[in-house]
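Homework-ish question, so no full write-ups if that breaks the rules, but can someone show me the predicted structure for this set?
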Amino acid sequence: MTQKLKTQLTERLGIQHPVVQGGMMWVSQPELVAAVSEAGGLGILTALSFGTPEGLADAIARTRELTDKPFGVNLTFLPTLKAPDYPAFIKIIVSEGIPVVETAGRNPEPFLEQIKSGGALVIHKCTAVRFALKAEAIGCDMVSIDGFECAGHPGEDDVTSLILIPRAVDELSIPVIASGGFADGRGLAAALALGAEGINMGTRFVVTQEAPVHPAIKQRLVEVDETRTALVMRSLRNSERVLKNDWAEKIIGMEKEGAGISELAPLLSGKNGLKALREGNPEIGLLAAGQSTGLIRDIPSVAELMEKIISDAAEILGKRLPGMLA
Amino acid sequence: MTQKLKTQLTERLGIQHPVVQGGMMWVSQPELVAAVSEAGGLGILTALSFGTPEGLADAIARTRELTDKPFGVNLTFLPTLKAPDYPAFIKIIVSEGIPVVETAGRNPEPFLEQIKSGGALVIHKCTAVRFALKAEAIGCDMVSIDGFECAGHPGEDDVTSLILIPRAVDELSIPVIASGGFADGRGLAAALALGAEGINMGTRFVVTQEAPVHPAIKQRLVEVDETRTALVMRSLRNSERVLKNDWAEKIIGMEKEGAGISELAPLLSGKNGLKALREGNPEIGLLAAGQSTGLIRDIPSVAELMEKIISDAAEILGKRLPGMLA
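A: Not a homework solution, just the prediction itself:
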């Protein structure tokens, strides 16, 4: 691939292309992560997918067997009473010299000093300008900001990427990565036009050859259009955007009838989604999916996908748009 | 203004800049419409704001006193039993030689032949790819596609502009105008990157010197951020995005408690919103407002606004983006 795009993201992370594969529970496994980094983007392992700090260390080792390019680790701070042993996970991240940590969920402040002790850059993933400002204030190096259209947790404000990105760029001094709704070169070009320094993609990377997801799930994501996602858990103020399958419709129906967390909990367990991902039955659990699923029409290798995104974006930036200047 | 952007929209409509001021009930009055067209965009009068075909003819005459540049007329087909006399309005549009008609609401097919008999181009405003395809099939010349973030009626699919625009561009042969969430030059550049031929703006034009809206309402729209809009009438499957004021919160509360159309109707009357617009009390009615309100920070003249949008977009297209190509 000859074409490159140079932004603050590529320069600060030392990567070729301003494209991040955001941490996805279960899906961000070594093979996918290595493929993204090898293709010039930034792959990110999800620490909590590996159960224990030793599991993470093993995943890092496996990723390094597949690529010598930089990759990151995601740490999601969950609102649970029995928290994972975050300091032990961070100890691995530091001792392994991981260059980029993506934090998500709750405020990472209690762990930031430890994370940065090894020199890692911290990208905090958040869903509103006020949270991005907080991340900047506590010393995060970049933010990845998620619009309403994103897979997973968009927050409760329902503000779309088209608004959130320029708003965050206006308010922050640190670089902004656009996340939520991006799947192709047009989206990358649009994000850069809005002032972002790159894009984060989730759903698009799920639908690649290297993603550790059953082919039937990838095929379903190819087939559905942009209207086939839905928010579950709105009633719990913990909204999650998922594929609008039987499972999600059941949950939404129960929410409408006033079901509480105790009734909903069995349906919300991540184990069901993991089972769906592995067995290839798209109806038996919650599957995070963004509206970008409407733009996904094939199951390429990560290298093919990256090549297409960058060459399409370069054509837009180098030809389509300048050609409109009279 | 020296800078110009040339797209299918500017070429087909014979305007300088690819920026349309979408039809807004009550607000799209001659002074605003003429200012937009005079500044090189396309201003659009809303036929139904003038009550009768004679009222529309009078508004057209007043607009022509203010500009000799092209402007359009919006015709919204409402789902009411007592329909306005659309053929009589269209007769005025045709006899006055209006070059562009923006249709909205229900399928314009029954009126299309009459509208086009005078040679007008028809831009159909819609909220989903399937409606855009229908518009193309029946002979509309362009579509203006409204994302979830738009003011007024976004439909019930909740798909954002970032997804809808490239999806519509992929499916249609006719030009696509991006609508919903646009307020500045960055948004214009992003829309063009996504494949649109221009943008439609509503809320941004409400907050200009020439909009016939009480200064206190404009000031409120400057002050609120992107989280201060809400959808009302979701329970009626006739969602409308409005300023999240006391009035809207009351309606949403009633909807949550199961109120039906008969209880809600008195609060939904457009007369309350019109009173708010005129008297400058932003709490006494529904005021359509898009999430772009978060990006609106001043009350410029239309000419100043257009100059800034075009020069910012040109800087992005001519410098920021090409500068990223290594």
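Now go work out the reasoning yourself. Hint: The mean pLDDT of chain A is 96.
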